[in-house]
Amino acid sequence: MRFRRTARVAVCSAAFLAGLFPQVLAAQNATTQEAPAPVAVAAQAPSSSVQAYTLPPDKLAKAIAISRIRNILNIAGSVWGIVFVWLLLATRAWAGLERWAQEISGRRWIQGVVFFATYLIIGALADLPLDWIGEHYERRFGISVQGWGSWLGDVGKTLGLTILIGAPILLLFNWIVRRWPRRYWLGIWVVTLPILAILTFVEPLFVPLFFKQEPLAKNHAVLVAKLETVVVRTGIDIPPDRMYLLKAGVKYTGINAFVAGIGATKRLVMWDTATDQLPDDEVLFVFGHESGHYVLHHIPKGFALSAVGLFFVYAACAAFAVWMVRRSGARWGTTELSSRTGFVVLLFSISIASFLLEPVSNAVSRHFEHQADVYGQEAIHGIVPDPQKTAVAAFNALGRSWLDDPNPSPFIEFWLYDHPSAQHRANFALHYDPWANGGHGEFFKN
Ligand SMILES: [Zn+2]
């Protein structure tokens, strides 16, 4: 539940098999730039609606340019991921890889490890050109300040983790398909749920591979004391030793914060770009937003929705994969879904489904994010002088720091945005004042 939209990281739970591992880890590669605050020249003020999020003209031109590039790369990346797997099916490359793995060892599990590790490496190499183009532009627009060597190092580390975590899971799933050829999707669904829970639990533990982090209290004792006033109002159980400062500024200029983990790994992580660039009041608002995700149980709710969604997605994908193998299997070098090449057909059908369902999972995500925005604004009521002003200022700083487009097309927002646009968030905050005339908010009694 990150505070901002991450450009190419559209986490779709249905993407589990095809892309979860890279996505979980790519959270570390969130794109992105900085923002000295003031001087807002109204950006393209359309006739009626108020523009609560504005950019000075030079930044506006840049924001429009880089948003277009991000959107194109995002869609191209999804389509390319599907086309690429299909190309390797059509040229019988996956079937060739399967034969090669069989020649390497007589043991099935070693063959499987070789096959799926190679599968993941090939997939990462296929993504590399688009990732590189994306990074090139993020650097050019001043969003990324990471050196190429360090960037490549992160790509390598992400791939290593993807293989370490992904290959055994794919091996397990493939085994389930062989063991229960008819109802295997049900078995895969059953094991997916604890795996998702475990990944959520361990995800924060991988962060130090990519960023240095320290206790937030170490250099921001005053801020932590202020955050405690919000903690008291919200009643959440995030003690100061679960608040971390992430040294993200060596790689990005953009502002961000997130909550991650469950149980013993639950934590709040504030990027140093946020504490460096935002006044404390706005950091409190960001913290209030993140607290909202916990208080409103967005992680378990997201889990429950994924569980229900995946049940149908797996069932449909299984049927689709059977149909594809029957229709084209002979040409692709496989006649059995339980073969490793057949399993790639299953992954192929899931990647198509996850692409088509991206708007659905993004709509759910936007709803949660909006709720957290409301919660955040209510959480700082009575603590900062003017919650509306604070929230609007925070969204402006956030949007400017990443060069967010002030007026994305509704279709792009519908399909690709896992957070409402900066404009929608700022506009809502500007008008949200439930305390006027003695009223109270949605989540707090005062
Ligand atoms: Zn959020």
Walkthrough of the structure:
By secondary structure, the protein is mainly alpha-helical. It is built from 16 helices and 4 strands. The chain has a 4-stranded mixed sheet. α2 (57-90) packs antiparallel against α12, α6 (184-206) packs across α11 (298-332) and α10 packs across α13 (358-379). The radius of gyration is 23 Å and the shape is elongated. Mean pLDDT is 89; it is low at 6-48. Bound molecules: zinc ion (ZN).
Top keywords for this entry?
16 helices, binds zinc ion, 65% helix, mainly alpha, 446 residues
Helix and strand sequence = HHHHHHEHHEEEHHHHHHHH
Hetero compounds: zinc ion
Mean of all residue-level pLDDT scores: 89
Helix content: 55-70%
Secondary-structure class: mainly alpha
* Major beta sheet summary: 4 strands, mixed
| First-residue to last-residue Cα separation | 26 Å
Number of strands: 4
Principal-axes shape call: elongated
Q: Write out the strand line-up for the largest beta sheet, numbering strands in chain order.
A: 1-2-4-3
Strand proportion, as a percent range, falls in under 5%
Q: Indicate the radius of gyration in whole angstroms.
A: 23 Å
Low-confidence stretches: 6-48
Number of helices: 16
Structural topology:
Blueprint: H1 16-26, H2 57-90, H3 93-104, H4 108-140, H5 148-179, H6 184-206, E1 213-215, H7 216-219, H8 221-234, E2 243-246, E3 257-260, E4 267-271, H9 272-277, H10 280-295, H11 298-332, H12 340-356, H13 358-379, H14 387-402, H15 410-416, H16 422-431
Parallel strand pairs: 2-4
Antiparallel strand pairs: 1-2, 3-4
The protein binds zinc ion (ZN).
